[in-house]
Amino acid sequence: MIRSYKYVRGEKVHLKTNIMDSKYYQASTTGIFHYYLPPLDGSRPYKNINDRNDKNYIRDTHKVIVKNIRGKENAFTLDASGFQYYKHESECKSFSNDEEIKQNYYPESVELVKQLMGASKVVLFDHTVRRHRPEDPEESPDKRQTPGSAVARVYKHIPEEADQLLEHRFQIINLWRPITHESFDFPLGFCDTRTVKEGDLMPMTLKFPGGPGETYGVKYNQAHEWVYLRGMAPDEIALFKW
Fold first, then answer.
1. Burial, 128: exposed, middle or buried (Cβ in 10 Å; 0-12, 13-18, 19+)?
2. For residue range 73-94, what is the model confidence (pLDDT) as tens digits?
3. Is the peptide bond before 178 cis (omega within 30 degrees of 0)?
4. Listed residue (179, 191, 241, 236) closest to 218, CA to CA
5. Helices H, strands E: what count in the chain?
6. How far apart are the C-alpha atoms of 198 and 147, rounded to whole Å?
7. Which DSSP letter does residue 201 get?
């Protein structure tokens, strides 16, 4: 902010000029992304979510430009790009206890998603609190749900209503927000789905207790356009198709 003065009829008047803080408007950054390639022996790729060494896919590492879209968020929508940013101030200020999150944040999130998506029914089935630890940042592009695993989710979490609900349209949506401070270190990045081809997605088995399940690994394509919102704040949320 710059404060200056001018004189109107001999009286000094304050002039206040707002200037965009450059720390939020850095044009782009780069990331080292670990893409996926299928095993050379032609077997079905898999990974174990509880054992990073239990996998058979090939890691394909690339340096990628990630563009900051601060100020241009409205150009990206959930239906067109697979993600969308919104403003929302949460009533919940503590995220240290899972029971408190389920009791307080879950009901708020259900109503928020209904409001933003026009959904008639919202079921929350999981949450993750990511903390600043070296092992937490995820640098492997992935799309969590295949068509088959999405349907399996419905049967797992709403078995008594699944057949009826699956006669209609449904989506699995992730709601993400910073919870204590602005996100500059390891922010959430998205690949604009308009730049992803069907052949870029590699179905793979996901091993976990109670599984197995299925997920997508993402193969490298230089046409992919990666973006992020620099300095995302706790009153900013992202909805994205999971």
1. exposed
2. 999 999 999 999 999 999 998 8
3. no
4. 191
5. 5, 14
6. 13
7. E
Stretch among 7-21, 64-78, 111-125, 167-181 having the lowest mean pLDDT? 7-21
Q: Which two tokens stand for residue 240?
A: 């994205």
**What are 106's two structure tokens?**
């879950």
Residue 84 β-bridge partners: 239
User: Phi and psi at residue 158, in whole multiples of 5°?
Assistant: -135, 60
Query: Coil, strand or helix: which one is 126?
Result: coil
Share of the chain above pLDDT 70, in %: 88
Measure the CA dihedral 181/185/190/191, to 10°.
Answer: 170
At position 48, the amino acid (one-letter code) is: N
How far is 94 from 87, CA to CA, in rounded Å? 19
Alpha helices in 86-220 (DSSP H): 98-100, 106-117, 147-157, 162-165
Please check the confidence at residue 5 and state whether its pLDDT lies above 70: no
Chain position carrying tokens 């058979």: 56
Report the predicted TM-score, pTM, of the whole model to 2 decimal places. 0.84
Q: Check whether 15 has a pLDDT greater than 60.
A: no
Token pair belonging to 180 = 């204590």
Dist. CA 153–CA 162, nearest whole Å:
9
Other Cβ atoms within 10 Å of 117 Cβ, number: 14
pLDDT at 242: 77
Cα–Cα distances in angstroms (integers) from residue 151 to residues 29, 155, 156, in the given order: 36, 7, 9
Structure-token pair, residue 23? 């720390």
